[in-house]
């Protein structure tokens, strides 16, 4: 079998090198998959799709297998370079995220065909590619999103033009070039994954509106998702989230505190699924604050310090201070002129139900905690805090009824019970990994199947053998 695959790959490379010249200036080719013009990048990507679409399904899986082998050694570099370029998050957690994206994103096994048979024959339902996908990657999870989307989209049979966030363009373009090199060495096809040399708002808009881009996958805030929706194209949009976590009277408080710290501090709260607030019933709130401190959080009780913290992380106009996004707890505390000891993992402080930080996706390791009279009040407030994003929520409880009631009321794409939030994307929890969680457009946790068209093929009066 191994020899058969080797022969197949060699034949594919030889054939494609002949059919799709890597030196054709008419295609606008630029080694490393980076182009000056959007139109040239899309044109080359379309040619690559025509080449990839003519190959067997097993070729897509060969690409994915090779990406997993060859990119694995670059995970430390990807994590370090992303941290230094964006000045956000921390390297150890970025390594975890990149590893999950590379090794826990489904490949072609995600594409499951179904069939119906009866007296009138057979109907087959298959997953087919769209063609060229325009994909937007954020600065918060740049390399993880590119790896995750590449595996899912190529497994589905598509080619991709990425529009990286300008704040993470260097490491994003390096990664895209490396992917291009690996894919070419496996298939002999250039430009399966491309981008432009200088990603800007204008190039992103041009890419979105290009006639040959058949599908848009947007991992970013509501502004960029709304811009994509206005193109009239099919959009898979991953918008903002404001995940609350609920702690009820039956929870294991020590474990809950540790899980919440683990989730809310993960990569300094950059993941959109991370806990952004905590709602605890009054009878356990004091113990929860004690356990937060015990497990490494810095709990602020002084009203003046709370005010200084808020003025540091939120601007006068109510918008989050971008300079504090993804920064360490120590950096934030120092900026707020708050004395502390050790290396706090998370900053926690108690607030009232109407406190503005509860309703902001702050993306920093600062957790406002609010206490309520009982579980029903906690759930009602959590729904209000989540703001209908329908993204992610977590809960800590031993009461199955409460857990089920919360899951139904919150209606989020991801609901995590008794674990850190990142269990919901396959890090320490069962299930596959994704960094494009499409809540505004409803697909939820995306995988290869998400990036396919469902096609129906009917054979009349045949292949019913019952």
Summarize the structure in short.
With 466 residues, the protein is α/β, with parallel strands linked by helices.
SSE layout:
Blueprint: H1 2-19, E1 34-35, H2 38-53, H3 57-72, H4 75-86, H5 91-103, E2 114-118, E3 121-129, E4 132-136, H6 142-155, E5 159-163, H7 169-187, E6 193-196, H8 201-209, E7 213-219, H9 222-229, E8 234-238, E9 244-247, H10 253-265, E10 277-281, H11 282-294, E11 297-300, H12 303-313, H13 329-335, E12 346-350, E13 366-372, H14 375-386, E14 392-396, H15 400-410, E15 414-417, E16 437-438, E17 444-445, E18 452-460
Parallel strand pairs: 1-6, 4-5, 4-7, 5-6, 7-8, 9-10, 9-14, 10-13, 11-12, 12-13, 14-15
Antiparallel strand pairs: 2-3, 3-18, 16-17
Helix pairs in contact: 1-7, 3-7, 4-5, 4-7, 5-6, 6-7, 10-11, 14-15
Please, could you describe this protein's structure?
The chain has 466 residues and is α/β, with parallel strands linked by helices. It folds into 2 domains: 2-239 and 445-458, 3-Layer(aba) Sandwich (Aldehyde Dehydrogenase, Chain A, domain 1); 244-425, 3-Layer(aba) Sandwich (Aldehyde Dehydrogenase, Chain A, domain 2). The chain contains 15 helices and 18 strands. The strands form 4 sheets. A 7-stranded parallel β-sheet has the order 11-12-13-10-9-14-15, sandwiched between helices. Strands 1-6-5-4-7-8 form a 6-stranded parallel β-sheet, with helices on both faces. Strands 2-3-18 form a 3-stranded antiparallel β-sheet, with no helix packed on it. Helix 6 (142-155) links the parallel strand 4 and strand 5 (159-163). Helix 4 (75-86) packs across helix 5 (91-103) and helix 10 packs across helix 11. The radius of gyration is 24 Å and the shape is globular. It comes from Vibrio sinensis. GO terms for molecular function: acetaldehyde dehydrogenase (acetylating) activity. Residues 33-421 form the Aldehyde dehydrogenase domain. This is Aldehyde dehydrogenase EutE.
